[in-house]
Specification:
Glutaredoxin; single chain; about 200 residues; two-stranded antiparallel sheet; alpha+beta; about 40% helix
Length: about 200
């Protein structure tokens, strides 16, 4: 269990550091959505990707991000962080729906060895019927992760099946026409995510 908690702590810390790095690297003075953000964010985050959906079909970002989307990188074997974050994102989507906004939650696996198309499909559906689960080859997953400036690293383990993966833990708000517009930290609630997302979609 000590290894388990160490892995969770590492994932959280690395996520915070990675997010702050992205914030510092890509923040800029001009921001058309400044009134919607907790701070100023911009820069070259997000972009094209090619992955595999829950039905085993090869898809691109144009196939998947057809509506405003909350994008999260994680893995299904994650014992705590990923399920909690995705449950919160699903709750935010429901809050937004009550307010008249149609937002898609997206889960991208960074553990393609274990997360097959069937696995990510079931993981996503168990969190929300609208959630899209994506996986792919290791190369495809790395390319998508690099596009969003995320981090992941498989931990060393004596058991090749039961290992943890350190990873950043941010949720990205992506609009079909605009692309990436903001990210949300782990300590932000579903209500806070919904409130800020609604601001973007109202402007």
């Amino acid at each position: 269990m000590s290894k388990l908690y160490a892995g969770l702590a590492a994932a959280t810390v690395i996520g915070m550091v990675g997010g702050l790095f992205a914030y510092a690297q890509f923040a800029g003075p001009a921001d058309q959505f400044a009134q919607c953000r907790g701070g100023t964010v911009g820069g070259d985050i997000g972009g094209p990707f090619t992955l595999v959906d829950g039905e085993g079909r090869t898809v691109t970002e144009k196939d998947v991000i057809t509506k405003p989307s909350l994008v999260y990188f994680g893995y299904t074997f994650c014992p705590d962080v990923c399920p909690l974050d995705n449950a919160r994102n699903a709750e935010a989507v429901d809050i937004l729906e009550e307010r008249g906004f149609d937002v898609t939650p997206i889960f991208i696996s960074i553990d393609p060895e274990r997360d097959t198309a069937d696995v990510v499909r079931d993981f996503a559906f168990n969190h929300h019927p609208k959630m899209i689960g994506l996986t792919g080859s290791l190369e495809q997953v790395k390319a998508a992760s690099q596009a969003y400036k995320t981090y992941f690293r498989k931990q060393n383990s004596e058991d090749p099946e039961f290992y943890l993966v350190d990873h950043s833990t941010f949720t990205y708000l992506v609009l079909p026409e605009t692309g990436f517009v903001d990210f949300f930290k782990r300590d932000e609630t579903a209500e806070q995510i919904a409130e800020r997302t609604a601001c973007f979609l109202s402007n």
